[in-house]
Amino acid sequence: MPDPAMLELSEVTKEYRVGGQTVRALDAISLRIEPGEFTSIIGPSGSGKSTLLHLLGALDTPDAGSILFQGTEIGGMDDERQSEFRRHRVGFIFQFFNLLPTLSAWENVAIPKLLDGTGLRKAEPRALELLDRVGLSDRARHRPAELSGGQMQRVAVARAMIMDPPLILADEPTGNLDSKTGASILELLGEIAGSGNSVVMVTHDMGAVTYCDRVITLRDGKIGSNEAAERSVSA
Fold it and tell me: Which keywords annotate this record (predicted)?
């Protein structure tokens, strides 16, 4: 029997009420994402990209359909189980980094461990190890104001990995970076996927998709295309 997909969605629908009207953000979406796959989700504003990412990370629940994570249904989890899932199974990377300005780089990386009950000093070795992995061992004691945009995003990538989650969700991770710095972040995400994690990235940057294994296009809440891609760089 084949191994379960990292994520498998079947007929997933999500609606919102906006100004007295019902808007169908996702319309019977079905897709499969494999372990170790770097997937990009592209489409115009309002196409449903962010809604899909929120559902994959259990930040929201679908109105209809099924979302399986490694064979287990997550679409209907209660708040407590959703919170547990987000802490241990998913790492989030955001466009605006979301770093705490009063903490050093390694302390920002360690935050998920602290929220899970691990002491700061006990979390430090793993945080430093991850900063070394993303090329920032020499900036571990620096605060965000002392880092460039690319360095801050690398801290955010390390933070997303601190709980060793099998799934990384990235929301416009290169949106605030210049093209060269953005390319280095995309290469890093490709390396993470190459080590067995699944990485799902929402992006407006068409150049970013050349770093991915699969490109999913959304339009008006429906999948327009779902195609394998050949990476332009080696992981």
Answer: ATP-binding, Nucleotide-binding, Transport
